[in-house]
Amino acid sequence: MAEASSTPKPRTKAKKTAAPAPPPPPDAGLLTTWRVWAAAGVLLVGSVIAWKLIGASYKGDVETICNAEKGSGYAGDKEMPKVTQWARDHLATPEGNELFSTLNDAKLNDRAKTLQAKAAELKIEPCPLVASIQKVAAEGEYRADLQHLCSRLSFPKLEETSDDGRIARMKEWIEQQAKSPRTKELVDPLQQATPAERSKLLADAASKMDVFSCETSKTLASPVQPPKTKGPPMVRPYAAPQVIGPMSPEDVAKAVVDATPAMNQCYAKGLEKNADLEGRLAVKLQIDPAGKVTNAGLADSKVADRDTTACILQALRETHAPKNPGPLVSVLIPLELTTLTAGGAAGGGAPSGVLSAPGGVSPGR
Question: Which of 19, 37, 158, 258 has the most crowded CB, counting CB atoms within 10 A?
Answer without folding.
Answer: 158
